[in-house]
Every structure is written in structure tokens, then in C-alpha cells.
Design goal:
Layout (H helix, E strand, L loop, with lengths): L2 H21 L4 H9 L9 E4 L7 E4 L5 E7 L6 H10 L3 E4 L15 E2 L2 E2 L6 E2 L1 H8 L5 E6 L5 H7 L2 H4 L2 E8 L8 H14 L3 E17 L2 E13 L43
Parallel strand pairs: 3-4, 3-8, 4-5, 6-7, 8-9
Antiparallel strand pairs: 1-2, 9-11, 10-11
Helix pairs in contact: 5-7
Length: about 270
């Protein structure tokens, strides 16, 4: 084989490997390894912030000393943010380009008309937004539901910025497609950005969506995951109830019980 032919064959092999790594399917064992790193540590003392259905989240009862909340992705209601203000005196900064102003009850001075992330003129960098509004050297909360934009924000955020947040609540999207390596890589990179500094303390499937599978692992399309910074210490449940007594269905349809692997329960393939 000539040198040029060998070079072309090598290039084809590299391109094939790249396509497999970027666009190939994800195996069950690979996903199990990732999920095992996210095994929740369930605090006994938790509170539900927000309304009973969609827009309410379960977080550790660890809000004393928190200065403010940042909530990218607004929509028409701000029940989580209003509840924080009403019960704990914690104000929230909101950002969303898709609406012209904040929901009723939120002071317009706390609202920024922008998507958080990277893109065209409609987008504002996450770090710039926080730096422009957060009191210096104060504890913060992040609550983020931005329809898939969470991956870009978390994968690129400065670690020092993330560590300013005591609690981070994220709704992750498209997880029913985790067999698609592009989705898996985004999710894995976002999670691994957080895990060295945060532990998972609550997971709740949003029942407004489909369920996919990677091998025998059920993957709800939407997962609400609460992270707490690792320097916070909690009394943990030894046998937590799932769903948690404070969990609520997001919409009026059959609920989704968090599958065993996501609860940190090891199972053999095909066993739940």
C-alpha cells in the first residue's frame, strides 16, 4: 500500500472513530457508571418551595444566610421565587428573553430580558449576569429550567462561580434520548462539572414527558435534580421513601416513579 493510500485509510479510520464517539449509541454499562456517581444522598430535613404541581422543588432546609436566588427561564409564573421571598425573605433575579417582563409579584428591577447562555444578541453570559447582580461574597441559590440550555450553561460555567451557589436545582431535558451519544455527552459533562463540588440530594422525574431506555435502564425525559455544595452537611435518610412525601406530580397524568438505578440502587440488567 502506498503512502497516500495508507494516509487516506488512516483518515477514514479516524473519521469513523470520531463519528462513533460523537454520534454513536451509548451502552447500558456506560450509563450505569455515570448514574452510579450521581447516587442521591437524601437529607431528612427538606422543604418544598413553590406550588404543589409544576414549578415546585424539594431542597434541603438550609436557607439561612442565603442572599438571593438566580432563576433563568421564567415563563408566566414564578411560584418558586415568590415562595422564597414570602417565606424566607430571599429575593430572586430572573432572566428570560421569551417574555417582556416578570410574572406578577416580581419587581421588574429584578428581571433581565435575555436568555442565559451563549448565542446571538438575545443571550447573556451566565457569569456576567450573576456578577452584575449578586451581592459580593454572599451565598446564592440557582434554580434553572431553560429547556435544554442548562447543558451549555453548566458545561462552560467557571467553577468558582458555581461554588458561589449553596443549592442548585436543575431540570434536565431530553434524557429519554440518553442512548444518543450527543445527549449523553452533554449530560455527562454538565454533571461532572458539578459533582466534584456538589452532591445530589434529590431527584424527581417530571411526569410531563416520555420515558426512554438504555438497555434495561429507564430514563425519564425530564429530571429535576437538586445539588447541594459538599461543604454543607445534613442528617441523611437511611431508607428514603420514593417518591418523597413532598414530591408532587407536575401534571395530571400517571406519575413516574424514579427508577431504581437513579435512586442509587444497584440492579442487574433487566432487574428493577
Amino acid at each position: 500500500m502506498g503512502l497516500k493510500a495508507a494516509a487516506r485509510q488512516l483518515l477514514r479510520s479516524v473519521q469513523k472513530l470520531k463519528r462513533r464517539l460523537l454520534y454513536g449509541t451509548v451502552g447500558e454499562s456506560e450509563l450505569r457508571q455515570l448514574i452510579a456517581q450521581m447516587a442521591p444522598e437524601w437529607p431528612r430535613d427538606v422543604v418544598r418551595i413553590g406550588r404543589e404541581g409544576d414549578g415546585g422543588y424539594v431542597i434541603p432546609n438550609d436557607l439561612e444566610g442565603v442572599a438571593c436566588c438566580f432563576s433563568p427561564g421564567v415563563g408566566r409564573t414564578a411560584e418558586f421565587e415568590l415562595d422564597l421571598q414570602r417565606r424566607y425573605g430571599i429575593p430572586s433575579f430572573l432572566a428570560d428573553y421569551s417574555v417582556d417582563g416578570p410574572p406578577a409579584g416580581i419587581d421588574p428591577k429584578f428581571f433581565t430580558k435575555a436568555f442565559i447562555g451563549h448565542g446571538d444578541h438575545r443571550f447573556l453570559d451566565f457569569g456576567e449576569w450573576v456578577d452584575a447582580n449578586a451581592p459580593p461574597n454572599q451565598e446564592l441559590i440557582l434554580q434553572m429550567d431553560i429547556e435544554g440550555g442548562e447543558y451549555d450553561v453548566l458545561r462552560t460555567a467557571d467553577v468558582a462561580l458555581l461554588k458561589r451557589f449553596r443549592i442548585i436545582v436543575v431540570e434536565f431535558h431530553d434524557l429519554h434520548r440518553l442512548s444518543d451519544r450527543r445527549i449523553y455527552v452533554k449530560f455527562s459533562e454538565a454533571v461532572h462539572r458539578l459533582l466534584p463540588h456538589f452532591r445530589v440530594v434529590h431527584i424527581h422525574p417530571n411526569n410531563n414527558g416520555a420515558i426512554g431506555k438504555v438497555g434495561s435502564i429507564e430514563c425519564p425525559r425530564l429530571l429535576e435534580i437538586t445539588f447541594a455544595r459538599r461543604d454543607r452537611h445534613y442528617d441523611l435518610e437511611t431508607a428514603p421513601a420514593v417518591p418523597h412525601p413532598l414530591d408532587r406530580k407536575n401534571v395530571n397524568r400517571p406519575d413516574i416513579v424514579l427508577p431504581a438505578p437513579w435512586r442509587g440502587i444497584a440492579t442487574s440488567p433487566g432487574v428493577f
